[in-house]
Amino acid sequence: xxxxxxxxxxxxxxxxxxxxxxxxxxxxxxxxxxxxxxxxxxxxxxxxxxxxxxxxxxxxxxxxxxxxxxxxxxxxxxxxxxxxxxxxxxxxxxxxxxxxxxxxxxxxxxxxxxxxxxxxxxxxxxxxxxxxxxxxxxxxxxxxxxxxxxxxxxxxxxxxxxxxxxxxxxxxxxxxxxxxxxxxxxxxxxxxxxxxxxxxxxxxxxxxxxxxxxxxxxxxxxxxxxxxxxxxxxxxxxxxxxxxxxxx
Length: 248
Fold this sequence. Notes:
The protein is built from 7 helices and 9 strands; from the N terminus they run E-H-E-H-E-H-E-E-H-E-E-E-E-H-H-H.
């Protein structure tokens, strides 16, 4: 079987890391790329035998693109600190790198997303997937600040899933929402986009309608309602920041 490098970007992730590292300790190499954590992140990583490199953080895509060439093995599995690899996904990864579908350059992985302790089965999250398993010489993230993906048109899809425990508290969401809205606004500005009252209101209201009604968020109960409102707020914030940037 060809060896696998698991790449994990970190910054102050001592709360999430033990479960994440436990789920990937089968890998031939665990490479942690840390952006100068000040908590117990580094000690936890070294306790699991991970190789730790530190690099200044610009955005998620840039950090992962820096990490990819540092991996020692041909196949790379990217896992965020708030994710866990299921046994089914591990088995599929091992099967792929040992010969099955070796002609493909990479594979999409489905995610099961949790919000405030509950799995969200609607709101559009039910179709979430990310391209996380790929060959080192083929994988590179798009040049954008937020929601960048590896561009491999002929990638396959795995059946196994990542468990994604992204937001344990509303505070977790709001911290990320501000950061993602800022990055998203800058990406739109770089693309020549602008914003005014119609786009600010229109995009945010449509996001709520899509998540809560069209994607069935109401079936997730109070969690679906809160998540849909927060999704709408994040879009509002992104276009409001775009409007602010375009005025400068």
